[in-house]
Structure formats: C-alpha cells, structure tokens
Amino acid sequence: MKITNKHNLPQTIVNVLHRPTYSKGKANISATELLTAPRIVQLKREHWDKLEQDAAEMVWSLFGSAVHNVLEHGRDEHHVVEQRLHAEVSGWSVSGAIDLQEVEEDGVIISDYKVTSAWTVMNEKEDWHRQLNIYAWLVEKVKRQNVKKLQIVAIVRDWAAREAKVKPEYPQAPVVVIDIAIWPFDTRQEFVEDRISMHSDAMFAQSMGDQLPECSPADMWERPTMYALKKEGGLKAKKVFATKEEAEEALTPGHIIEVRQGERVRCANYCQVSEFCDQYQTYLRNQNDHDSTAS
Question: Does residue 290 register a pLDDT over 70?
Fold first, then answer.
C-alpha cells in the first residue's frame, strides 16, 4: 500500500508511518481481521499494491502505537505486555497481540488500549466486546490461565473538560476504563469457529473466481433512509419515520416531509477497497439511477 502526504505532514511522521511495527506473524488471520468482513479482507489482499492512504488519516493509529511504549515503561513483575498468541482452529492459525495482561493469583486481567473519540466512548463498539473475548479465548486456550476480567482503556483524544462538567454521559476524564463482559468459553470458541468458516468460504470463492459473500448492513455501517416530519420553515423534526407511507399518514397542514437519504457510512468514508468492491459500486449506480429518475 502506498502512503501519500497530501497535507505536507513533517517527513519524520511520514517516515514512521512507512515503518509499521504490526505483524500477525505466521498466522492465517489475526483477531482484528477475523472481525472484519470477509469481503474486505479478501479485496485488501488482492489489491494491496494498488491501495493508497494519506498520512493524515493514519496519525491517530501512530499515537495508538506510542501507547505501547508507555505500557512497556510502566510494566511491573505482574504485567505481560504486547504478547502475541497463536491458536489452531479448523486448520487455521489465529493470532492476537494483547496489549496488557495483569497476572494475579485468581486469574488474568486483559486490557486493550484505544486512542479514540469521546463519541465512541459514549457509544461503545460491539467489536470491542468481540475482540476482547477473542483475546480471552486465546489466553485460556493457549496459556491455560483463567481470565477474570476484560477492559478497554480508552484514551480520549478530543476530551474537553467543559463538556465533562455539563454532560454526565460524557467521559469524566481523558482516560476511561470500560469493563467488557466475558462470554462463556464455549460461546467464544463457537464465535471464532463461525468467523473462520466465513473467511474460509470467502477465500475459496476468491481463489475460484466466484462472487465474494456480500457485506452485511452492520459491516457497512448502513444508515437507512428516514422521513422527517417538520413544520414548514422549522429546523427540528417533529417526528422521524422509517417509511414514507408512515410519514405521509402523519402529515398535517403546515408540515412537510424531509427525506434523509440513507448512506453506507463505512463504504463511503472508511473502506479502503470500496472502489474495487462490486457490491458498493452497484449500490452507487442504483443510487444515481434513482436520483436521475426522481429529478
């Protein structure tokens, strides 16, 4: 993948970005890839040499890597920092690099450090739960040690003291510890096996030149089209409906219906392979056809 520098960031930062420290080792798939949509993983592998990402988009991941140096300097005799574990499942080697394991007499506390936004902390991701439970599965399967606690340590990059004072739901400090529920071991094992099956099917389809499995609405962070009932000239919606028919039934004199067009947020803004994805390109063509017909 080519790293561009459209915003003329200092060359020192660009140099660091060109020297990534991440490696999944000899594993077939990493824990983070396991959670990614199989279509995205396969398209990335096929088009890796054609992909581009700007250095400005990678700055926060750089700070995330810097946190690992903090962990190394802050460790004590009970801490295991940045340990990569491998486990074999269904003929696949799965690996995961665990930021911090605090080893106590009655079990291990697993912590994953995230440099993230206040909004994300207030709307925690489902993938945090999945990722930490994969790590717990690895520790118990490979090291035969009981995992007693999982937690995200979120470093809030846009934290504002003023917001914390007036919003109880806002992170009350720039570092927040979020407890993650531990699934039963059998649930973790089944989850890993299911994800491997999905990725195996996608890899086979790719090798045979067949159609890749499609991303789900959740994979695409899809926002459906909504219909807002608003007073003429008003700014705020009186009520928002999932269908046009529901909005029309509620329409009264002096009000209008505002169409809030749906979007596949990940595809449009965050997916590195969207230009190579026939699923998304078909979606865009259908959207353009719809807009042309509507106008």
Answer: no
Spatial separation of the C-alpha atoms in residues 222 and 85, rounded to whole Å: 33
Is there a contact between 184 and 80 (Cβ–Cβ < 8 Å)? Answer: no
Residue among 32, 36, 48, 39 at smallest CA distance from 202: 39
- 107 phi-psi bin (left φ>0, alpha ψ -120 to 50, beta other): left
Burial degree of 55 (CB within 10 A; 0-12, 13-18, 19+):
buried
Q: Go through the chain and tell me how many residues it has.
A: 295
Decide: 100 and 81 in contact? Cβ < 8 Å.
yes
Q: How far apart are the C-alpha atoms of 201 and 193, rounded to whole Å?
A: 12
Distance of alpha carbon 213 from alpha carbon 202, whole angstroms? 6
Q: In angstroms, what is the C-alpha Rg of the chain?
A: 23
Rounded Cα distance, 280 and 274, in Å:
6
pLDDT score for 141: 97
131: Cβ contacts below 8 Å, ≥ 6 apart? 31, 32, 35, 112
Task: Record the tokens describing residue 149, joined without a space.
Answer: 């606690």
Question: Would you kindly state where each structural domain of the chain is located, as residue ranges?
Answer: 2-208, 222-294
3-state secondary structure of 114: strand
Query: From 3.90.320.10, 1.20.140.10, 3.20.20.140, 3.40.630.30, which CATH number describes the 2-208 domain?
Result: 3.90.320.10
d(CA 55, CA 199): 29
The string of pLDDT tens digits covering residues 91-121 is: 999 999 999 999 999 999 999 999 999 999 9
Amino acid at 158: D
